[in-house]
Amino acid sequence: MGCIVLILALMATGAWAQSAQSGESTSRPQPDAVPSPPDVPIPDQGTLSPPQEKSKSKRALNKLDPHCIDAIFHACWSSPQAAPQKSIPEVERQVAEDIDVGYYYLRDKNYAASESRLKEAVAIKPDSTAALIGLAQAQQKLGKYGEARMHYEAYLELEPDGANAEKVRKALAELK
């Protein structure tokens, strides 16, 4: 039964029919190299030098190189160790994140979400001028003019000559 299955498989692939027609055996070893086109020069194998072996001392030194790991895989690096970065306090990081997300919502015209995030930032850090301006803008768009005016004035108390002071004064004039 096994021979019949083998013969049927050979007939299906056509290998049996090809070997029977050509008279060649399929068990003959195939050539090692793929033949190259006739116009491609073949390098002279006699002139190629074999790779030089490293001495035992060089191999040992390569393993001890402080910039390489050879435990499971070989990995090397050459850049110097980076200077440690100053860690930002958790409170400062949270305020910065609230301001970034608040301004994202402000640009996206989601004023309620912007107001919420910027209120959190002002609650944590009341002297954050960026949070005060963004919060006032969101409240102005929501129609909360009294609260917007209060936050614009708080900004002007902190930075009366700041970079955005003129814009804040203009916004206050629109609210009156």
Properties at a glance:
two-stranded antiparallel sheet; mainly alpha; Serine Threonine Protein Phosphatase 5, Tetratricopeptide repeat; 176 residues; single chain
Structure description:
There is one protein chain. With 176 residues, the protein is mostly helical. Helices cover 57% and strands 2% of the residues. The protein is built from eight helices and two strands. It has helices at 2-13, 15-22, 56-64, 90-107, 111-124, 129-142, 145-158, 165-175; strands at 68-69, 75-76. Strand 1 and strand 2 (75-76) form a beta hairpin. The chain is elongated. It starts with a helix and ends with a helix. Mean pLDDT is 76; it is low at 15-23.
Mean pLDDT: 76
Distance between the termini: 100 Å
Count of DSSP strands: 2
Give the spatial strand order of the biggest sheet. 1-2
Shape: elongated
Gyration radius, in Å: 39 Å
Q: In sequence order, what are the helices and strands, one letter per element?
A: HHHEEHHHHH
Largest sheet: 2 strands, antiparallel
- Beta strand %: under 5%
Q: Roughly what percent helix?
A: 55-70%
Q: Runs with pLDDT <50, length 5+? A: 15-23
- Supply the CATH superfamily name of the domain at 90-175: Tetratricopeptide repeat domain
CATH class of the domain at 90-175: Mainly Alpha
Do you know the CATH topology of the domain at 90-175? Serine Threonine Protein Phosphatase 5, Tetratricopeptide repeat
Please sum up the structure shown:
The protein has helices at 2-13, 15-22, 56-64, 90-107, 111-124, 129-142, 145-158, 165-175; strands at residues 68-69, 75-76. With 176 residues, the protein is mainly α.
